[in-house]
Design a protein that fits this description.
The protein is mainly alpha-helical. It has helices at about 5-15, 45-55, 60-80, and strands at about 20-25, 40.
């Protein structure tokens, strides 16, 4: 019987864990190689692309941008001082402007 090593055990350990979430822009060079991830493209980059093409597709882009505005508003409220301090989301503070 072959001795168990990290090379034989590690795949079985990884298979029990959920895949990590990778947040990045949509550049192909940011895609993972062998590592299986749940790909979550950056919302800010996605929104910016809708703004860029809004003059060509005004109705469609307005629909998407209005839906995204709700997300950004809720994020802002969750990060504000109006949020209950006992709530875990309040421990997340936005990064300072650069």
């Amino acid at each position: 019987m072959r001795a168990k090593t990290w090379r034989t055990c590690w795949p079985s350990v990884l298979s029990r864990w959920p895949r990590p979430i990778q947040m990045c822009d949509a550049l192909s060079r940011n895609l993972p190689g062998e590592l299986k991830t749940i790909l979550a493209h950056c919302l800010a980059h996605g929104r910016r692309q809708f703004v860029e093409v809004a003059e060509h597709f005004p109705e469609e882009c307005r629909h998407v941008l209005e839906a995204l505005s709700v997300i950004y508003k809720n994020d802002s409220l969750a990060r504000s001082d109006n949020c209950c301090r006992s709530n875990a989301c309040c421990s997340i503070k936005p990064k300072a402007a650069r």
